[in-house]
């Protein structure tokens, strides 16, 4: 806390002491997020998942088969059994099976009979052949069997019959499908799920994974031995366990005493820095490899510098930063040999220099109560999740938070925010789907004042029909909030998905113009991230980057640190 010009200000830096984790984000329709004239010339589209899926669907019409049989889903036992029978039937009925070559004749094994057992004695009495005594209550109903006709071998002896199986036509159909339905399903395979235009499934959404911490202890099956031992031990009657164990010298058997396996220790989550490095590993590995290839046993000349500049631009770092790095590299080194690690060190330094001015903590001015944070961004970039994580940080810091479910476009987003509200002890102001988001924000502001909240965080929809609609809604939210508080929203946070790449630049351009974005959060840096774009954004817009998302968990929001990020981009660990 610090006094500033008579204002009571609280600065949240969320230091390390406290913070010790369907598809790719759907972008706005391309016409809504067209790069502007200011966007750099080098534009590489984000991977088009829909197109890829469509292509593979076109080329692979049949059901997918796991390359690794071990990885293939295991069929239920009865299914497997019927499949085995079916296979056996195919063997039995396989045309040409009788054409198989005769096995080579094996020499007659010498028969050594030490003492002829009674049952081999040709003079022994005939065994009993009347088994009528086996019939309990009359004759057993005949089970109709379809047998494979016994083939006769060329020498007149019956050929061996492999199996007697029900005919293929009598194999049971899955209980849920009638014969017609099966035929229909086979005639018209349903690939509608591959349709990139199809609306996303909205309901029912399962957010149970957001619920309170999962019990790490593996649940023992009721009545399992370890369960019993545990309960007995708990009751302090260990002796009873030994005497109760089925063991008998008289019976000649006993249960083997197996030490109960130690419960598996819950896997500790990886430190966030490790997740960040792993997330950026693909792009940093690529960059690092190109640096090695470019600078091994080669003098620094104009051509090498030009190639290196291209490599940096391809890594999304932006033209401005790429030029700065190559300029710095050539200083005093032109015409000399330079190692890959020297280049990587310079890269890390220059990226850090670009990022340092934007790596600032989120500052909350509690003179304005509630401090209003409007969270905007393309749908799927992590707005709602970031709100939940941020609410957790603030409430742990002793602040009272109200959440506004302003994404009235998507029912699941409202439910998701309610769960975050429960988890963080924050009141959630929500309305039915389709409600006016601006009206809701207005009511939420009043509710936050009434309940004495320090901070009001407003979620917004990212997916609107077109850019005009998006602008109109966000502008209206800002306008109605300003009727209550002229400086609201005090912070406008935009979430950017780190897996997006170049498109993030145009997203910032649009949301900055529409909603007055004054801070960024880059999410999903734990995935296969392309973090270079953040450097380009920092160089171009100089907007503060408050946090990075390194997982879906409540604690997976980290303050943005320029040095660590730069090192991860350059693939350096120390
Ligand atoms: N791995 C990872 N996943 C994240 C992160 N942040 C968000 N997600 C996931 O990204 C998905 C989308 O996040 P949301 O918070 O629903 O995104 P949104 O912007 O609110 O989406 P809309 O409500 O559709 O506008 C969810 O599955 C989140 O769990 C992150 O930092 N790392």
Q: What is Rg?
A: 35 Å
Task: Report the major sheet.
Answer: 8 strands, mixed
**End-to-end distance, in Å?**
33 Å
Q: What is the CATH topology classification name of the domain at 366-562?
A: Rossmann fold
Enzyme class: hydrolase
Pfam families: SRP54, SRP54_N
Region (Disordered): 18-103, 147-203
Biased composition (Low complexity): 57-76
Describe the structure.
The protein is of the alpha/beta class and 574 residues long. Among the domains are: 86 residues, Up-down Bundle (Four Helix Bundle (Hemerythrin (Met), subunit A)), CATH 1.20.120; 197 residues, Rossmann fold (3-Layer(aba) Sandwich), CATH 3.40.50.300. Helix 6 crosses helix 9, helix 9 runs antiparallel to helix 16 and helix 12 runs parallel beside helix 13. It is 37% helix and 9% strand. The structure holds guanosine-5'-triphosphate. Guanosine-5'-triphosphate binds next to helix 10.
Give a short synopsis of this structure:
The protein is of the alpha/beta class.
What features would you highlight for this structure?
GTP-binding, 13 strands, 37% helix, 16 helices, Four Helix Bundle (Hemerythrin (Met), subunit A), eight-stranded mixed β-sheet, three-stranded antiparallel β-sheet, disordered N terminus, Rossmann fold, alpha/beta, 9% strand, 574 residues, binds guanosine-5'-triphosphate, single chain
């Amino acid at each position: 806390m610090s006094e500033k010009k008579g204002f009571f200000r609280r600065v949240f830096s969320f230091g390390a002491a406290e913070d010790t984790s369907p598809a790719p984000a759907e972008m706005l329709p391309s016409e809504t997020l067209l790069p502007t004239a200011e966007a750099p010339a080098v534009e590489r589209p984000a991977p088009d998942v829909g197109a890829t899926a469509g292509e593979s669907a076109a080329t692979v019409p049949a059901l997918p088969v796991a390359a690794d049989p071990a990885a293939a889903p295991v069929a239920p036992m009865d299914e497997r059994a019927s499949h085995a029978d079916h296979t056996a039937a195919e063997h039995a009925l396989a045309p040409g099976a009788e054409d198989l070559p005769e096995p080579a004749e094996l020499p007659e094994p010498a028969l050594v009979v030490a003492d002829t057992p009674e049952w081999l004695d040709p003079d022994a009495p005939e065994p009993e052949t009347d088994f009528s005594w086996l019939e309990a209550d009359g004759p057993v109903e005949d089970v109709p069997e379809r047998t494979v006709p016994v083939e006769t071998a060329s020498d007149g002896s019956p050929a061996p019959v492999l199996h007697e199986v029900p005919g293929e036509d009598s194999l049971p159909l899955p209980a849920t499908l009638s014969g017609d339905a099966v035929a229909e399903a086979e005639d018209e395979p349903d690939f509608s799920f591959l349709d990139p235009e199809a609306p996303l499934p909205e309901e029912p959404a399962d957010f149970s994974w957001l619920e309170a911490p999962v019990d790490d202890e593996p649940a023992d099956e009721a009545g399992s031995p370890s369960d019993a031992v545990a309960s007995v031990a708990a009751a302090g009657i260990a002796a009873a366990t030994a005497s109760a164990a089925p063991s008998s010298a008289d019976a000649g058997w006993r249960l083997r005493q197996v030490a109960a396996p130690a419960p598996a220790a819950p896997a500790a989550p990886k430190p966030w820095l490790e997740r960040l490095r792993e997330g950026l590993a693909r792009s940093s590995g690529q960059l690092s490899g190109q640096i090695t290839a470019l600078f091994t046993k080669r003098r620094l000349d104009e051509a090498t510098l030009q190639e290196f500049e291209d490599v940096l631009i391809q890594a999304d770092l932006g033209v401005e930063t790429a030029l700065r790095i190559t300029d710095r590299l050539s200083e005093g080194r032109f015409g000399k040999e330079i190692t890959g690690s020297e280049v990587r060190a310079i890269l890390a330094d220059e990226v850090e220099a670009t990022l340092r001015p934007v790596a600032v903590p989120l500052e909350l001015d509690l003179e304005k109560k509630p401090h209003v944070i409007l969270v905007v961004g393309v749908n799927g970039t992590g707005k709602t999740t970031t709100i939940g994580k941020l609410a957790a940080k603030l409430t742990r810091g002793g602040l009272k938070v109200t959440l506004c479910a302003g994404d009235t476009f998507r029912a699941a987003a409202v439910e998701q925010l309610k769960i975050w509200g429960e988890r963080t002890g924050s009141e959630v102001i929500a309305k039915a789907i389709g409600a006016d988001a601006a009206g809701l924000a207005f009511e939420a502001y009043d509710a936050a004042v009434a309940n004495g909240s320090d901070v009001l965080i407003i979620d917004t929809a990212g997916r609107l029909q077109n850019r005009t609609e998006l602008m109109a809604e966000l502008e209206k939210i800002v306008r109605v909030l300003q009727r209550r508080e002229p400086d609201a929203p005090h912070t406008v946070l935009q979430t950017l998905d780190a897996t997006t790449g170049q498109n993030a630049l145009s997203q910032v351009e649009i949301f900055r113009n529409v909603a007055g974005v004054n801070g960024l959060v880059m999410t999903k840096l734990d995935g296969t991230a392309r973090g270079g774009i953040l450097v380009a954004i920092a160089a171009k817009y100089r907007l503060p980057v408050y946090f990075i998302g390194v997982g879906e968990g409540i604690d997976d929001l980290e303050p943005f640190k320029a040095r660590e990020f730069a090192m991860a981009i350059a693939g350096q660990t120390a």
